[in-house]
């Protein structure tokens, strides 16, 4: 079971994270560091955030809705899939949805806890995921200015992506002897659009088209995730229902 959960955590992390490139010794654009710093400061002072996620592949897409009340430390994530809604307060995570078979419950709880933890961190620092994966993040982003917006882009080569993916895999499964391979790469790209005046994120785009393997079993990643409809400092009514099951 421990081995299964390790694989599940690793594959779940890939849904929620991004990979980096090279050693970061030379900035691609010196202005990126200042933009990233200012955006972090702006997000650290927010009272609340609401974001719509548009995710899926070319064949199937769906929207999910994520909101966080920073003042009251409350989170709500509506996946719009299988009726699952995740909640969190200052002490616990919760899962509400249809009755879940016992054999699937641990998987659902593990993934729900991971989603909630990541969204809390991303809400307060929109670069959290990328910084966890990329040393010297500002050294990897290119910057374009257009219509009062900063457009930060990261597009690694196949060699860069493969190297960093393998390093991430090693760090993620240090206590296990799993073999992780990246047999096929097609495309990987991150784009973050920031308002020049407010320093708040307006949208992000993550394109992932590659296949990795765990002990010979392949896991194709064919996904495009867009974050949009950012609403900042609006009053949010997040109430954890009595029917929600607390995740231990």
From TrEMBL:
Residues 1-20 form the signal peptide. It holds the Pfam family DUF6612. Keywords: Signal. InterPro entries: DUF6612. PROSITE patterns: PROKAR_LIPOPROTEIN (PS51257). This is Uncharacterized protein. It comes from Savagea serpentis.
């Amino acid at each position: 079971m421990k081995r299964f959960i390790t694989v599940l955590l690793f594959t779940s992390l890939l849904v929620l994270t991004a990979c980096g490139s090279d050693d970061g010794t030379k900035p691609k654009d010196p202005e990126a560091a200042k933009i990233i710093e200012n955006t972090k400061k702006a997000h650290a002072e927010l009272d609340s955030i609401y974001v719509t996620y548009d995710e899926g592949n070319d064949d199937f897409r769906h929207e999910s809705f994520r909101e966080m009340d920073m003042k009251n430390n409350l989170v709500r994530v509506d996946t719009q899939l299988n009726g699952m809604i995740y909640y969190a307060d200052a002490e616990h995570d919760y899962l509400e949805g249809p009755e879940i078979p016992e054999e699937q419950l641990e998987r659902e709880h593990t993934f729900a806890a991971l989603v909630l933890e990541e969204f809390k961190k991303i809400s307060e620092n929109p670069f959290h995921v990328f910084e966890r994966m990329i040393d010297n993040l500002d050294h990897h982003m290119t910057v374009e200015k257009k219509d009062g917006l900063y457009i930060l882009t990261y597009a690694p080569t196949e060699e860069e992506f493969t190297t960093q993916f393998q390093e991430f895999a090693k760090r993620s499964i240090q206590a296990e002897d799993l073999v992780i391979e990246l047999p096929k790469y097609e495309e990987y790209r991150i784009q973050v659009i920031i308002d020049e005046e407010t320093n708040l994120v307006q949208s992000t785009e993550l394109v992932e088209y590659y296949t990795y393997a765990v002990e010979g079993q392949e896991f194709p990643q064919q996904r495009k995730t867009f974050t949009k409809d950012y609403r900042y400092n609006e009053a949010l009514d997040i109430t954890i229902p009595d029917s929600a099951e607390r995740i231990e």
